[in-house]
Amino acid sequence: MPISGASQANRIDPTVVYGFTNLPDNREREPLRIVRGKGVFVYDERGKDYIEGASTFYCTSLGFSEEELIEAAVKQMRELPFYVTGAHRAVPVVEHLAERLAAMAPMKNAKVAFAATGSEANDALMKFLWYHNNASGKPRRKKIIARLGSYHGGTIATASLTGWVKYHAGFDLPIAGILHTAQPDFANLAEPGEAEEAFADRMIDELRALIEREDPETIGAFFAEPVSVSAALALPPKTYWPKLTELLGEYEIRLFDDEVVTGFARTANMFGCETYGFTPDCMTVAKALTSAYQPLSAVIMGEEFYEGLERGSAEAGMFSHAGTYHGHPVPAAVALRTLELMEERDILGHVRTISPHFAAALRALEDHPLIRGSRALGLAGAVDLVANGAAAGTLGAQVAGCCQANGIFVRPSADTIVMAPPLIITEAEIDEMFRRFRLALNEVLEASAG
After folding, report:
1. Number of other residues whose CB lies within 10 A of the CB of residue 83
2. Which of 61, 89, 110, 366 fits 105 for a cystine, CB–CB 3.0-4.6 Å?
3. Are residues 358 and 397 in contact, defined by beta-carbon separation less than 8 angstroms?
4. Picking from 13-22, 277-286, 375-384, 388-397, which range would have the lowest pLDDT averaged per residue?
């Protein structure tokens, strides 16, 4: 369909409201328009190629234009383009996907509730917690603890859970009952001379103090990513997770595992909880579940937790939770094929094979004057930047801008750059990605010297 004259005139003063931007800038700054993609590359409307070094929002795990996923969507569209999952009506592909996810999950006899986005899944899990506890004789256990810096979504409830406190006030957030504790970010929050285990002990002691201050009988759950990529890949110390799970068990606080980013091989295990050796009560997944080709997410619950929902439903006569697009057959078909392709092509094995090369490429950057350190976990990595005269917290955006000019997309977080390329990336593509990244670093360095 041809673009109308009105649309042409609106290219800089847009009709679209762009998230994660400074909105006034949108009236002055024309957006970069991406028109196609292939593998780890995307292309703008002028034909320039970019390596998608962050899998967009850490989600396009199998890269762009994967024909098998396209065909899965087309096939399902032809057979049954839409039907609800609910009210004692089912679509087989949705049932098959639920069975596959339950079999993959670390919890025994897991149950699966579908939603459309990671935000929705996390929001639903919060809702399910309150419902479960009301039906289980624990109506006071409603508070939820999350961690500063972590991202859990954009709904009213999940934006409250998200530890981006700088942005809370304008939305009148957080809602009541949402608490925050420190991110176990040893690289950036450790005190001078503090050992990793001592740092982990301090994180746990601070959390214990928060629980005691709030009254343990009012705390329902602790919500966390196994490793927070959104908090600039804040790698927790080795002893953090064992001590955390012990503490939560002591106070009978449920552990909710947000695997929206870390799920499906990103950390070199199928789920991040495997990487860190813990079993959650419930978990949420999205993003790589469909390689982001279709919007789909899921809440995966342990059987004991699910039984609380059954009790509440029996009392009320119905489980009053559903969504028109929850369990949509087209995303379900794409997700099922995504999981099949991951197995057929041994994507997990590929990530484990390629990760050392990725980590070595990150470490090689440490000789650059703008880099003070690097870290990696599976196919997620980060470099911390040296301020070099720039205002604190601004260098990441400056480097990301130069990266874009040199044909690579990364995710800035204050003075850190995060990378998480598609899981299908090759050694040669990793080398090219870091060649482009070093060019960007050199340009920033030259500009600061001039």
Report:
1. 13
2. 110
3. no
4. 388-397
User: 67-79 and 329-344 are packed helices; what angle lies between their axes, rounded to 10 degrees?
Assistant: 150
Identify the CATH number of the domain in which residue 389 sits: 3.90.1150.10
Question: What is the model's pLDDT at position 6?
Answer: 42
Query: Nearest Cα to 160, choosing from 172, 142, 175, 149?
Result: 175
The owner of tokens 């342990």 is 302
| 255 Rama sector, left if φ>0, alpha if ψ -120 to 50, beta otherwise | beta
The pLDDT of 290-314, averaged and rounded, is 97
What would the mean pLDDT of 245-270 be, rounded to a whole number? Answer: 98
Q: Strand, helix or coil at 319?
A: coil
Of 176, 200, 175, 181, nearest to 190 by C-alpha is 200
Whether residue 326 is found in the same domain as residue 413 = no
Ramachandran assignment for 376, one of left (phi > 0), alpha (psi -120 to 50 degrees), beta (any other): beta
Q: Is residue 425 part of a domain?
A: yes
Domain span at 380: 32-65+346-449
CA 162 from chain centre, in angstroms, equals 12
| 422 neighbors 40 (Cβ within 8 angstroms) | yes
Q: Tell me: do 339 and 350 sit in the same domain.
A: no
Taking the C-alpha atoms of 348, 336, 111 and 175 in order, what is their torsion angle to the nearest 10 degrees? 80
Q: In whole angstroms, what is the distance from residue 257 CA to residue 157 CA?
A: 16
Which pLDDT belongs to residue 276? 98
List b or e across 393-414, with b for residues whose CB sees 16 or more CB atoms inside 10 angstroms. Answer: eebbebbbebbbebbbbbbbbb
Q: Whats the size of the chain, residue-wise?
A: 450
First-to-last alpha carbon distance for the chain, in angstroms, is 48
Q: How many domains does the chain have?
A: 2
Query: CA-to-CA distance for 39 and 172, rounded, in angstroms?
Result: 41
Q: What is the CATH number of the domain that holds 227?
A: 3.40.640.10
